[in-house]
Amino acid sequence: MNEKNNQLPPSLESSVPKEIxxxxxxxxxxxxxxxxxxxxxxxxxxxxxxCSSKGNxxxxxxxxxxxxxxxxxxxxxxxxxxxxxxxxxxxxxxxKAYLExxx
Length: 103
Description:
The chain has one domain (13-101): Zincin-like. Helix content is 40%, strand content 13%. It contains 3 helices and 3 strands. Strands 1-3-2 form a 3-stranded mixed β-sheet, with helices on one face. A hairpin with a 4-residue loop joins β2 and β3 (56-60). α1 crosses α2 and α2 (68-80) runs antiparallel to α3. The longest helix is centred in the first third of the chain and has 15 residues, at 18-32. It starts with 17 loop residues before the first helix and ends with a helix.
């Protein structure tokens, strides 16, 4: 997920520990029906997250301080790349469906 330069202000109420964040990712992966190889949380300068073709998910540490809705959008976005490599119509439709389901 790109455009980290539009960073949201941190919110202490929405900050989560890495273990909780990893649980969120695992829960969404199960819901979406995908399996990943690994989850890494580390500082990233240009984007919030990435997904490799081998199923390795990397998330920016700053994401842990973002609101739950923004974390959810980022997690769903990256996990969907395990099914759809590009942002094609199906990717966008599935992303919208999963995110609207939780609003």
